[in-house]
Design a protein that fits this description.
Layout: H1 8-30, H2 45-65, H3 72-88, H4 94-99, H5 108-138, H6 150-153, H7 164-194, H8 199-203, H9 205-251
Helix pairs in contact: 2-3, 2-5, 2-9, 3-5, 5-9, 7-9
Length: 252
């Protein structure tokens, strides 16, 4: 809706997908028991995930919109994104690796645009992870929302497959590790499979926005999930230690 030159069929398809996704989430939350969505009763986990993707898509759309409809907000975002891109574009950084997927003869304006939007998306995703980390350790998440029910907030987690604490700890570490590695791994995989990226693909605003959003937000969402699972594992471990100490005290 924000980008110029969007075809009517594309807009209708986007609206249809948005309605279907909204309906699924509405029925998931209105139901008494969750079936798919994790941490339904542990705000602000899901709100933070949704807001992160929304802000990334909105800001990238405003930056790319400035070419046809410049505004004060778009120009400020472009200036900030250019400064951020220059700061984050250093050797072996995720931004530099994303730029290395471009062919050597890629036009300078395409390289500059990719540097700006990649830096902005990566910075927003990193801020979301930092905010949630602070909320977990300083805001006493999820206990600040009342009693935490593991089985309701993790509907896809099967408690019968091995020790719960061990599996939660393993999944938490795996999610955090993948979230850290993916921004570096995705550009390498893309370059290894497809070779140099066609500048014509990145010159198309829709493809550029969603490609950068997936590259930046997917790792951060995995890190958010890993932090959340790690916190749940710590709570279960603490409860087990407390129960063990109480049982020893009764025996003594």
């Amino acid at each position: 809706m924000l980008l110029p030159g969007t075809a009517g069929d594309a807009s209708a398809l986007i609206v249809l997908v948005a309605i279907l996704a909204g309906a699924m989430i509405f029925f998931e939350y209105i139901a008494e028991y969750p079936s798919v969505i994790e941490f339904r009763y542990a705000a602000p986990f899901n709100r933070l995930r949704f807001t992160t993707v929304l802000i990334v898509v909105f800001i990238l759309a405003m930056i790319l919109r400035a070419g046809a409809y410049p505004s004060q907000i778009s120009l400020v975002l472009i200036a900030f994104a250019r400064i951020l891109g220059n700061l984050l574009d250093f050797p072996f950084s995720p931004i530099r690796l994303a730029l290395l997927t471009l062919a050597p003869d890629t036009p300078a304006n395409v390289v500059d645009t990719l540097r700006m939007v990649a830096a902005m998306a990566y910075a927003i995703s990193g801020m979301a992870v930092l905010f949630f980390f602070i909320a977990v350790h300083l805001g006493n998440w999820p206990r600040g929302n009342g009693a935490f029910n593991v089985w309701v907030n993790l509907p896809m987690f099967d408690p019968t497959q091995g020790d719960v604490l061990t599996r939660l700890t393993r999944d938490a570490r795996l999610n955090v590790m993948l979230g850290f590695i993916l921004p570096f791994l995705i550009p390498a995989v893309v370059k290894g499979i497809w070779g140099w990226m066609d500048p014509k693909i990145l010159a198309e605003p829709h493809a550029l926005i969603w490609s950068v959003t997936i590259w930046a937000c997917l790792p951060s969402l995995m890190m958010l999930r890993g932090i959340a699972l790690g916190r749940v594992a710590d709570m279960i471990g603490e409860k087990r230690r407390r129960a063990y100490a109480e049982s020893k005290a009764r025996v003594a």
